[in-house]
Amino acid sequence: MSRMRYFALGLGLIALTAVAAMADTPGRHPAYLRARTDLWRAVRLTEVRDEPNVMRDLELARRETQEAIREIDAAASWDRKDLDDRPPIDTYPNRPGRFRAMVQFLAGARRDIDREEDNPAARAWRNRAIGHIDAAIQAVRHAAHDDWRDDWMR
Hints:
Blueprint: H1 2-23, H2 31-45, H3 52-78, H4 95-113, H5 120-153
Helix pairs in contact: 2-3, 2-4, 3-5, 4-5
């Protein structure tokens, strides 16, 4: 009888260990959190003041990026991800470096969420987020061009 108890106790411990191991990574798409962090960093970089025509483009990039974050939040909630992440803003000494960093953050976020989606309920949100990220990248590139043109015309 004591052998049976030890066997049952062992099976119980194995089951608890398996459950604990799965609790570390809820859901199937951990790249959502990395993408979300990159998107928030891009949003924070749009807050640095610039010429009015550049700010108009950056405001569009900011809105598109925030929409992408909302879509990712909706998709990530289906995978039970922790969404309480607000990364600090990095500083960049010059405007071209800032624009390059924004595009890199946006492109990195796009790569992170552009993987195969296992959860059918999250696919539509992911696809809309990709569209918003693409629009934000175009707006940042347009802002960088406007900034270059403003500096060149002086």
